Amino acid sequence: MGLKLLVVGSGGREHTISQKLLNSPKVEQVYCAPGNAGMKLDGIEVVAITEDDHRGLISFAQKNNIDLTFIGPEDPLINGIVDDFEAAGLKVFGPKKAAALIEGSKDFAKELMVKYQIPTADHQTFHEYGPAIAYVKEKGAPIVIKADGLAAGKGVVVAETLEEATLALKDMLQDNKFGVSGAKVVVEEFLAGEEFSLLAFVRGTEVYPMVIAQDHKRAYEDDRGPNTGGMGAYSPVPQISEELVQEALVKIVIPAAEGLVAEGRSFTGVLYAGLIATASGPKVIEFNARFGDPETQVVLQRLESDLAMIIDDLLNDRVPSIEWQQSGYSLGVVVAANGYPGNYKKGTVLPDFQFIDKEQFHVYFAGVAEKQEHLVTNGGRVYLVEASGETLQAAQKKVYQVLDQLNTEGTFYRSDIGFKGIRS
After folding, report:
1. Which H or E run includes 310?
2. pTM (2 decimals)?
3. Which domains does the chain have, with CATH numbers?
4. pLDDT of res. 184
């Protein structure tokens, strides 16, 4: 009998993780809770338990003899789901609540970086509007305003003008737009340079880096419009040198893992460093306590080793064997509901994906539901189409050819994912 695994979450990231785990010859079945209707097309069993129902998830894992649970999203991690699973004697992959604070509080993350001399933007934390606006006026624009807590990727405003910065501070500190998450804000200097994501499997002080990716956060072409959870990604990133990646590993990711151990917050799971290549070297924009979305959809395409075995090794104090594809590129484009990241309509019928060659392309579903045997939109980011190619241009061309053939009525996507890498 093969392994039975449970993945917690419902997005494109969890679809990708579930599919990668299911590809393991040692895995018999993968459940995803709550999952989404699109995952069923890939043989993933969807379970109607929400990610915040820790007791329900633990009960399911116990009754179904789940060998290992993988926690996808940040909310349950920050709410201590790993602690709860471990207390119930269950095997689970992800950081405990104390370690997940590196994502749960931007203020905590900044303090950690200052203490362990990890390069990041100059910053200050504020609880009140008056001192915050005085600081912003002193520093000038562009400037970055961040809600301290979680805000589904939307609590960061890159203010190009003082007016934008003022509005952002009012939203967070006066109008309570992000609730408790925005009751404290971090204001930091704007950093110029190429952004990239460096993820790593981490166990305490051991760090096993993944191939880097570049996400596209703004909603529209040429990095215009509001911040989103991510509109597309590609991997690797040709304009970021291997020397710079190694510098980021040595000066940022390893010290962060070691710093968490030193603070009594040892981290086991996936540590995500959102970085920027500045004129004076790589600096941290943010840390996350889990896989990124949409980076996962392109990074895991590059993984040649068995993901289930990597996790099993990490949880059993063995050194994992991790091999990455050395040639070619992977690129993914997110298709989102019109109006995202603001208000959007649900229930638009999705196109038929049957014509897509599953050997050449992957479709990872996120905000979808089932209605009268059709997939319909049910969230902001609806699905992502991914393809690989020998060159970044080839991968990009393949994805957009598929998107051109699909009926994307009621949805939109960026037409420039990957161009930064191609033009570099």
Report:
1. helix 307-315
2. 0.93
3. 3-94 (3.40.50.20), 128-183 (3.30.1490.20), 194-315 (3.30.470.20), 329-423 (3.90.600.10)
4. 84
